[in-house]
Amino acid sequence: MNGAQDLGGMMGFGPVEPEPEDVRFHAPWEKRALAVTLAAGAMGAWNIDASRHARETLNPADYLSSSYYEIWIKGLEKLLLARGLVTAEELAAGRALAPGDPGQRVLKAADVPAVLARGTQYDRPPEATARFAVGERVRTKVMHPAGHTRLPRYARGKVGTIARVNGVFVFPDTHAHGKGECPQWLYTVAFSGAELWGADGDATLTVSIDAWESYLEGAAA
Amino acid sequence: MHEHSHGHHHDDHDHDHEGSELSPMALRVRALESILVEKGYVDPAALDVLIETYETKIGPRNGARVVAKAWADEEYRAWLRTDATAAIHSLGFTGRQGEHMVAVENTAEEHNLVVCTLCSCYPWPVLGLPPVWYKSAPYRSRAVIDPRGVLADFGVTLPAATRIRVWDSTAETRYLVIPMRPAGTEGWDEEALARLVTRDSMIGTGLARTLEELRP
């Protein structure tokens, strides 16, 4: 969706403010926000694409005026409400008003290291050959889906070159909405700065995105 | 207390003890945590382990070891370039947000910069949690259209002829930049080399420390 998360190429946010490498958190609640988000995600009631979509459906004004951990918490509340795991009344009260579902998967402290080390694999065995090869010219589609997509606006309708063929990966546009993994070939597509930003752009610039096959169509060489 | 939109402020009132003034966001997170714990969905001890892990165990020193090994060991460097996931896994750095790794290498001709314009995708097993600026609108908006301007914010100026290669992490592939090895470090062991590798140099917003910068 064309939400506030799709920031590439926007202007006016001011300079980037570097910070020292040893700064991990900026307030104690950020640690809790991180841990609660990860632990709640480990319940398995939603996948990573659904969680990204929950964040990007925040009102753009809200998204842009929230820090990233705030965005996480607001997205998490949406997911918990949508899955019926907590109620609006509970969020308002700040405490549980009914017992939870005892059948729900819960991440135990002893399992944390193994769960983090395992991660989640998003690649899948290929069932068809890749449509495009390295070096081939492709054009990204012009599309404005109302749901989740990982094709940023700045890279839609642009001609680029396949730089890598990454394998077959779970397709976020369906996965985010409970419509299945629908795995597709994933490519790294490189665009010149001029193609993305016009003649005034940095002539030394190349930008790539990772694009699923259905985002792409062939382009004349 | 108001939280700055980019989260740069230390919220001095955000203490975790009774009787202190908590920000609305701190209260909101505390309430959510309480609800989830009371409903049995979250194990409070697991929260502590998660925090401890990302505060003390998983951070950019992991990535620095990968880069140092790549600098010191040509065979490892080649492996890292062709199968970064396996090469990084061999050092014990693996898992969440680093399942599918790609390593890209800076040269005198080409400089790599990594961004996630759509969210905050970042290689956690090698770099830890992303810094605030990496998740912020200024960085995510400008990295793809004005990377030299972003580099200037970090005090980095590259030759005008150097090609800039920006990787927007729009899928589950996570990118690690191998910075250029500083001059005068021939024969150094991996431990000494790792001290030259900064977090920012592995994102591409910085360069490895020079020998001058290493001196106190």
Keywords:
heterodimer, A: 221 residues, alpha+beta, Cyclin A, domain 1, SH3 type barrels, 2 domains, 6-stranded antiparallel sheet, 29% helix, B: 216 residues, alpha/beta, Nitrile Hydratase, Chain A, two-stranded parallel ribbon, 12 helices, globular, disordered N terminus
Q: Estimate the strand proportion of chain B.
A: 5-15%
- Supply the number of helical segments of chain A: 8
Radius of gyration of chain A (Å): 20 Å
The averaged pLDDT of chain A comes out at 97
Query: How many individual β-strands of chain B?
Result: 4
Poorly predicted sequence stretches spanning 5 or more consecutive residues of chain B: 1-19
Within the CATH hierarchy, at the fold level, what is the topology of the largest domain in chain B?
Nitrile Hydratase, Chain A
Through-space gap between termini of chain B: 38 Å
Q: What is the SS-derived class of chain A?
A: alpha+beta
**Low-confidence runs of chain A (pLDDT<50, min 5 residues)?**
none
Strand-residue proportion of chain A:
15-25%
Mean pLDDT of chain B: 91
Number of strands of chain A: 6
Please tell me the CATH architecture of the largest domain in chain B by its name. Alpha-Beta Complex
Q: How many domains comprise the coordinates of chain B? A: 2
Domain Nitrile hydratase alpha/Thiocyanate hydrolase gamma (chain B): 25-205
Catalytic activity (chain B): an aliphatic primary amide = an aliphatic nitrile + H2O
GO molecular function (chain B): nitrile hydratase activity; transition metal ion binding
Biased composition (Basic and acidic residues) (chain B): 1-20
